[in-house]
Amino acid sequence: MTPQPPPSSGNRPHFTSMPDLALRDLGGAVVWTNDDLFAEAQNLIKTPPAQYQPATFGHKGQVYDGWETRRRRQSGVDQAIVRLGAPGVVYGVVVDTSWFKGNYPPHISVEAAAVEGVVSVDQLLNDVEWVPIVDKTPAEGDTRNPFKVDAKNRFTHARLTMHPDGGVARFRVHGRGVPNPHFFRYGHFDLAALENGGLITACSNMFYSSPNNLLMPGRARHMGEGWETSRRRDDGNDWVQVRLAGRGNVNLVELDTSYFLGNAPGAATVRGRDGENGEWFEVLPRTELQPDTRHRFVIDLDRPMTEARMDIYPDGGMARFKLYGTLTDDAEAELIEQWERGEA
Predict the structure, then answer these.
(1) What share of the chain is helix, strand, coil (3-state, %, to 5)?
(2) Of 93, 228, 251, 324, most Cβ neighbours within 10 A?
(3) How far apart are CA 326 and CA 83, in angstroms?
(4) In this predicted model, what pLDDT tens digit does every residue of 293-335 receive, in sequence order?
(5) Do 181-330 and 15-177 have the same topology in CATH?
(6) What is the dihedral of CA 45, 46, 52, 55, to 10 degrees?
């Protein structure tokens, strides 16, 4: 069964609460563009929102935090190809034209492709089948333009086209990571990681920052790269729920409060369950936490799980949440079978 994206939040399209698979921080890269004279295309996949300072002129004109091409004097289009940091199923894209007011593209389109292995730019331009996921559509200036995507297959690259030219600040590709399951066969790995197919399915509070940050690769570089809740004024506690890469056994839990100094949780618990309707069981009992510390706990539990829930007491922030382990034999075989059938 295809996992469904998290529910919508207010009037925001639901897919925007899913991870951005194109982020540089996740390993994404702009591998080609036909033109970025005014502002380089690599800005498209930066994590922070685009910034702007008026009257900041460089040799090529006003400095923009985005991708901007020269004015087109002949017919044609401008394009940029992004290699996704985490290949996967795309639920929607956002073409963010923030601060581009008189120089945004009047129309955009998006295509995607699935390529195995590491390929050259020449192959991407000439030997790859590109699938339209957003048809040529009007875009607004100085706006986050969201576009829902209905394709259900796995993609590794996305190609953004501006018709005919102009500027885009950020290009967000929201979806669910789907890695090659053959890589899971070579030892323990993080069952919760976005790049391995982990997915946040529910969260009590994300006032300051997204819980998706918990499942990003590597170590956080500052507090803004973690998950932080607002301050609780009741007797409850905050929590987050994760669907794992597959049914597996967890052997090591990592709770990292790095850079959370005066706002780290006082304690945390971790529970698991086997199946959406299974009963929750204890993985890590309520454990006191220290600020700005990477906590690691060896787990002696021979009980498979498909989902995990971390409760923090009472509130606060966490940089990373990692669950190292292995897939069950049945889960590994099922994922490989799906992969070979071309299912995502």
Answers:
(1) 15, 40, 45
(2) 93
(3) 28
(4) 999 999 999 999 999 999 999 999 999 999 999 999 999 999 9
(5) yes
(6) -80
Domain locations in the chain?
Answer: 15-177, 181-330
Buried b (16+ CB within 10 A) or exposed e, 36-68: bebbebbbbbbeeebeeeeeeeeeeebebbbbb
Q: What is the pLDDT of residue 52?
A: 85
CA–CA distance, 303 with 282 (Å, rounded to integer): 10
Cα 7 to the chain's mean position, in Å? Answer: 16
> Residue 50: CB partners within 8 Å, gap ≥ 6?
43, 65, 66, 96, 98, 99, 169, 170
pLDDT digit string (tens) for 54-76? 878 787 777 789 999 999 999 99
Which SS3 state, helix, strand or coil, does residue 73 take? coil
Flag whether pLDDT at 10 surpasses 80: no
Q: 337 falls in which pLDDT band (50, 70, 90)?
A: very high
Q: In which band, very low, low, confident or very high, does the pLDDT at 3 lie, cut at 50, 70 and 90?
A: very low
The class (CATH top level) of 181-330 is: mainly beta
HSE (side-chain half, CA atoms, 13 Å) at 3: 27
Q: What is the mean pLDDT of residues 20-45?
A: 96
SS3 assignment for 135-179: EEEECCCCCEEEEECCCCCEEEEEEEEEECCCEECEEEEEEEECC
* Peptide bond preceding 164 in cis form (omega within 30 of 0): yes
d(CA 201, CA 243): 7
CA-based max dimension of the chain: 67
Which CATH class, in words, describes the domain spanning 15-177? Answer: mainly beta
Return d(Cα 245, Cα 198) in angstroms, integer: 5
